[in-house]
Known about the structure:
Elements: E1 21-22, H1 34-40, H2 45-57, H3 59-65, E2 68-75, E3 80-87, E4 103-106, H4 111-119, E5 123-124, E6 129-131, E7 134-145, E8 148-158, H5 167-184, E9 207-210, E10 216-219, H6 221-229, H7 241-249, H8 257-263, E11 269-275, E12 278-289, E13 292-302, H9 304-344, H10 348-373, E14 378-380, H11 381-393, E15 405-407, E16 412-414, H12 415-436, E17 448-454, E18 458-465, H13 483-494, E19 498-503, E20 509-516, E21 543-545, E22 556-557, E23 575-576
Parallel strand pairs: 15-17
Antiparallel strand pairs: 1-4, 2-3, 2-8, 3-4, 5-7, 6-7, 7-8, 9-10, 9-13, 11-12, 12-13, 14-16, 17-18, 18-20, 19-20, 19-21, 22-23
Helix pairs in contact: 3-5, 7-8, 9-10, 10-11, 10-12, 11-12, 12-13
Amino acid sequence: MRPSVRPPVVLAGGTGSGHWRNAGQCDDDQVPTLNDLARRAQIVAPDAEWLHALVSDWELLADLSFADLVLWAPLPAEQAWIALAQVRPTTGPTAFPDDVVGSVRADGEQPLLDAALIEGRICREGDPDWRRGVPVRHETIPVCRSGRVVAVIERSTNLDSARTPSRMDLAFLRAADDLAQMIAAGLFPCPASSPTLVRSPRVTDGMVRLGRSGKVGYASPNALSAYRRLGLTADLAGRELGPLTARLCASSTPRDDSLMLAASGRAHLETEIEANGSVVQIRAIPLVVAGVPAGALILLRDVSELRHSERELTTKDATIREIHHRVKNNLQTVAALLRLQARRMRVPEAAAALEEAVRRVGSIALVHETLSAATGEVVDFDDIVRQIALMAGELSAPEAKITPVLVGRFGMLSASVATPLALVLTELLHNAVQHGLAVPGGSAAGTLELTADRQHNRIAVTVADNGSGFPPGFDLETATSLGLQIVRTLVVGDLGGTLVISPRAGGGTSVQLDLPLPNADQVPPQTAAGPVQVTDRQATGTVEAQRSGQEADPVQVIGPDPDQALAPTRAPRRFSARRSSSLSPPQTPES
Ligand SMILES: Nc1ncnc2c1ncn2[C@@H]1O[C@H](COP(=O)(O)OP(=O)(O)OP(=O)(O)O)[C@@H](O)[C@H]1O
Ligand SMILES: [Mg+2]
């Protein structure tokens, strides 16, 4: 096919022989992208997409040619050429140690580029051009789309280390010529053959050239090794690759037509062959030269080790999940034992304490249950919160059921944050239902709101109820109860955050947590809702636990001041704790 030609660029003018200007320009003063340069060359969108597809796959041509490729486009307004993209071969030395992208060459300096553009055919230079003492041979390949030349590839071979070509070199060069002709005829890149995201095989991984009949004309040593690993004992040369591959795979995988199609080079395809315990990635590129089928290029890559590692990772992942599942089962057994024990207790306080323990163990089990279904060591904490809220709601009477309202999103959290936070929220929600919203002699009533505001590296959590508020004179220091001590130990010690308990505007209590997130969790949730302000920091009276750099015992009170209790004096109080405190028994004021 002889493509029609774009209006030729005027060949006169220029900036002087051999002088390249770097004229990369883009909107934001950054290194120009292919899009920026294509816009500068006034290349229309479909042509630019074609060039993108070409550039995403042209390393194949560079490797087969042992040559550098530079994609040039004419700059009609400036009577010059601009370099849009560049690729170096992995099979030979480069002819361009410097970056060429964005360079501008004046018309007339590059007769080969002009010739390819005007004549729409591959043009070769007779004598090599000497560049920095290195002989470089140039060729130009017009890039055609829909019968028009949209750009020109300059193929430059560094002849410095030229040697007598081997059989492999010749097979590569022949395949390169066929591909170059397909580019000039608008048949490459083929949209269907664009390489997949996972790295496609490269020429150096293994290459087989099939003839028109589907028989192997040449197989590179790596390609032969790949087939040996698939179980081939004979040679590949002269064999029909399609049926041969199908026979090798027959025992291990069900018959797959795409495999036969790919191995016989009849369609642009990328697939994987598994046989004899090995896995080989295979990419087929049918070749058409001068309108006639000319066999195919088959690229092969042995990915057995890669797949093996992937499978090992999957197995490891499954093992970790299984362990979380067992931990959850064991915690449930512990909870069941405690419950049994609670039922046998004669003293009601003792039975209640054991029931509390059951609840706490249950909230830890929740996290492990979620982890047993997750693929990593992170959990969707919103799922856990929903279940904790449900458990808290169940404490209220069925006729006046309190359903905690959840505002905002926690998003994904790693287990190291999720486990203590689940326990903390369990305590706070239960306190709100059991104490704040409890109505003497009746069932609990009111509203309970849990708000999460996740930022890049922190998360702010508020538990607010519109109940009775803390009893007057309540002092966290002298309180012998366990719930808030656990909360304080976990928030300040384990999570390294701060805890503020304050009266809520309009009545009730607001407990605010501000927690730093570990590096692994420092990504914003997909749809983080804005914070809802439910606290009134102006309100008098706070109890504040805050992390400080001091090495102190967990929840040790720094500078206790009896005047600073929540009520009636209502001034802030500070605590500090070691981060490693974990769930070591919190110190009570008596200790
Ligand atoms: N949201 C709240 N509204 C009103 N009072 C509360 C609230 N949260 C806690 N309190 C008060 O603080 C006290 C201490 O709470 P804490 O959770 O430490 O102990 P507890 O709930 O009594 O017992 P447990 O150790 O089983 O949790 C409670 O007894 C209650 O008087
Ligand atoms: Mg409590």
